[in-house]
Description:
The protein is mainly alpha-helical. Helix content is 44%, strand content 10%. It has helices at residues 3-12, 18-36, 50-67, 82-91, 134-142, 168-187, and strands at residues 69-71, 76-78, 96-98, 105-107, 121-122, 128-129, 149-150, 154-155.
Amino acid sequence: MSIFDVYDRFLKGPKVSEEEWDYSIIPGNATKLKEKYKLNFGNKTIPEDKSTMNNLFNAGLEMLVSTGYYNTDLKRVLKITEEEVWEGIKKTPKQLIIGDGRDVARFYPRRGNSSVKPIIQGGPTGAPVSEDLFVTMMQGYAQEPVVDTLVSGVMSTVEGHAPIANTPWEIKATVAEIRAVREGMYRAGRPGMGI
Length: 195
């Protein structure tokens, strides 16, 4: 299915307000499925027993199929079938390679207590960062030997201007962020890190 097919399916999907999606549909469906699958983690954040893990997966699958995806721009819901979900799972890559040279990071599926080392991502992860500190901050994350890939922050200003959505300043800030992340990687001596 191409991006154009997905867009066309969104256009044909039911129209829903963002408030209804966030405050009624999602919590309502989640509550029903929590009860149906008897999901109660107690004081554990991550379930360890197979029964709870299976119930959690099945609840998530049913939630996706019964609820669908919401597009905030179109205010519409894309419904998918269970078969489409399983087809997507089958097509999921078995590994993901990000970065280049000695800084390459290889992502592999992991299970509990895995011997495969987890990938460590460093960065302010979407948090606002002053433009005068941006390069230095990214350099700080990049120079940590345990950090495998970087996650960028958001420049709070670019050339003193707020990066307001749907304006040229938003585009300029995005380009400036990418350049600043790369500059931080170069200063740290790790130019091949994945972002």
